[in-house]
């Protein structure tokens, strides 16, 4: 399976491509914003494509040609303003969804925020609410397509080494999860068609990742 990772230069993206390049059934293509980001992926023998999410749908669709699945793990980051939140986390996500449709890519995995329900927007601090709203509407846009989607809602992200064990369900208690484990959850979801049409929250737990994904 050839997988286009959007937001590949992020921490989850780098973990994911490392995992995929060591998995004989998955082949990664890294979509990056700047050419100077390419060296990391070239060292893993992963193909790269330089595309800015603020470019048009056609440009993103061209990067998705010949691809079997898209993983959207891009984010504007905590140090940008509301404008970048809209342009990347909402518009960038929607354009990538539309590009998938245009390129004939049916499988789409979205890395969202832990809770993107309407109630979560209302309850979020004013500085965080725009991000939750952007993720809410991007998720809703994806769910209204005929793509084979999976939406993953990770808990508070850490840079701890992955444990290989998680708790995953439609709703779980808030908690932390290493980015490395989120990447492993994405890879497991790509290989398990039972995750199609589902969305779930994931935090550190006691169940091996593949088993947790299979039980959803």
Description:
This protein is an alpha/beta fold. It has one domain (about 1-215): Rossmann fold, CATH 3.40.50. It is about 40% helix and about 25% strand. It has helices at about 10-20, 40, 55-65, 80-105, 120-125, 130-145, 180-190, 210-215, and strands at about 1-5, 25-30, 45-50, 70, 105-110, 150-155, 155-160, 165-170, 175-180, 200-205, 205-210. It has a nine-stranded mixed sheet with strand order 3-2-1-4-5-6-10-8-11, sandwiched between helices. Strand 1, helix 1 and strand 2 form a beta-alpha-beta unit. This is NAD(P)H-binding. InterPro entries: NAD(P)-bd_dom, NAD(P)-bd_dom_sf. It comes from Sediminibacillus halophilus.
Strand and helix layout:
Blueprint (H helix, E strand, L loop, with lengths): L1 E5 L4 H10 L6 E6 L5 H5 L4 E4 L6 H7 L5 E4 L9 H22 L3 E5 L6 H6 L5 H15 L4 E7 L1 E3 L6 E5 L6 E3 H12 L7 E7 L2 E2 H6 L2
Parallel strand pairs: 1-2, 1-4, 2-3, 4-5, 5-6, 6-10, 7-9
Antiparallel strand pairs: 8-10, 8-11
Helix pairs in contact: 1-7, 3-4, 4-6
Protein name: NAD(P)H-binding
Organism: Sediminibacillus halophilus
InterPro entries: NAD(P)-bd_dom, NAD(P)-bd_dom_sf
């Amino acid at each position: 399976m050839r997988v286009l990772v959007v937001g590949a230069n992020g921490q989850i993206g780098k973990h994911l491509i490392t995992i995929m390049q060591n998995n004989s059934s998955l082949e990664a293509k890294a979509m990056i914003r700047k050419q100077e980001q390419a060296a990391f992926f070239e060292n893993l023998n992963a193909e790269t494509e330089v595309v800015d999410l603020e470019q048009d749908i056609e440009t993103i669709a061209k990067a998705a040609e010949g691809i079997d699945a898209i993983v959207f793990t891009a984010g504007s980051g905590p140090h940008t303003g509301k404008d970048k939140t809209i342009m990347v986390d909402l518009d960038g996500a929607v354009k990538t969804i539309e590009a998938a449709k245009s390129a004939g890519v049916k499988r789409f995995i979205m890395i969202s925020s832990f809770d993107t329900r309407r109630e979560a927007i209302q309850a979020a601090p004013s500085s965080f609410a725009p991000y939750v709203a952007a993720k809410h509407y991007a998720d809703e846009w994806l769910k209204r397509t005929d793509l084979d989607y999976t939406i993953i809602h990770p808990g508070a992200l850490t840079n701890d080494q992955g444990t290989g064990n998680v708790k995953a369900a439609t709703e779980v208690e808030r908690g932390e999860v290493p980015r490395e484990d989120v990447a492993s959850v994405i890879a497991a979801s790509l290989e398990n068609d039972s995750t199609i049409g589902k969305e779930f929250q994931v935090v550190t737990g006691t169940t091996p990742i593949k088993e947790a994904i299979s039980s959803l």
